Amino acid sequence: MRDYKKHLTLLPHKWQTVGFVAAAIIAVCFVPFICLREKFMSQNWYMYLFMAGDLTLSIALLLICFSREKVEDEYIASARYRALTISVILFFVSRATAEMISGGFFLSNTVYDVIGRTVNESRLSFQNHHSFVAVIYKATYWLSNLYVLQLLYIVLLKLMVRLGNGNGFESMLFPYRYKKTGWRILIISAILIPLVVYYLGHVLVNNMGDVVSQPHDRKAFIRIYMTVSRLIVLLPYVGILLVCLSREQQEDEFIRHIRVRILAYFVIFYLIAVFIARQSVLAVSAIVTAHGGNYHPQLSYLILCSIGDILGKLTWVPLVAVVYELVLKRVLSNNLKESSNEE
């Protein structure tokens, strides 16, 4: 039987020092670099330097996150898992709120663009016309940034190690009955999102004249539709949050070890996937900038675009969380079978 009580394999502590030094250098250079953008003779060079800085900062934060402390013991491991869990939950809630306000990729690249043009509204007109909503959107969008996720994890880990609050992450879980509720919400959202966002949206656009005749009534009707659509986009986040943060029927220490180890591996894979997607998007922007915006796509360009687009969809947070839950179920099931065979 695989020993899930073993700690994660981490880099030596010296790499944490390297990461802090590299991140500090990038932080010091970032402000003057942004301020001097207009003075760069070549925007192409500016883009290349920006990509190099982004790459360096990403690697530096990864080194800090996945390097050992000076003394790596059972308590440090527990604090690490608890800090990781809290960071992921805050990231999850922030991403859900930001996507609810903006509509995410469900609304941004589909029928929402068509609807926005019919009433002369921008994609984010909802928060642009409500200052409080605009502040919430900017705050949650900032908090859902992966750099912030990693920095939050680092700060939480250091505080928990210093203050002695690293144990007891099982208290963060909901009762088991919430898991069933979460799966029901996911099923409902899988039906409602295509129905409301795509089908009703296209019907709304194609038959706008038959639905309402007056321009102000048309705008009000569309705003109602967009509000309902945003709430429906939030459903998968609510459902998967209940699923992933609910206890198993028989929650014990061994299951908790399995849960946090799988969570840690998923966070690592997610960070790597988003890192590759981001670098692909930046590389595409650099290619276009280098050709002055007049560029005929070649194979390398198409490959980079495909990588960024595919990974962007595969790293949609609810999808990743569903895969995490299915993998957790599979591992627990295999462990139960192995235990039965040994007996």
Salient structural properties:
343 residues; mainly alpha; 14 helices; 78% helix; globular
Task: Give a quick precis of the structure.
With 343 residues, the protein is mainly alpha-helical. It is built from 14 helices and no strands. Residues 118-129 have low confidence and may be disordered.
Description:
- It is a single chain.
- With 343 residues, the chain is mainly α.
- The chain is built from 14 helices and no strands.
- The chain is globular and about 60 Å long.
Number of helices: 14
Report the structural category: mainly alpha
Shape: globular
What helical percentage do the residues reach? over 70%
Order of helices and strands: HHHHHHHHHHHHHH
* Strand percent estimate: under 5%
How is the biggest beta sheet arranged?
A: none
Please provide the count of β strands.
0
> What Rg, in angstroms, do the CA atoms define?
23 Å
Oligomer: single chain
Helix-strand blueprint:
Elements: H1 14-35, H2 43-65, H3 74-102, H4 104-108, H5 111-118, H6 125-128, H7 131-143, H8 146-163, H9 177-206, H10 208-211, H11 215-244, H12 253-290, H13 299-314, H14 317-342
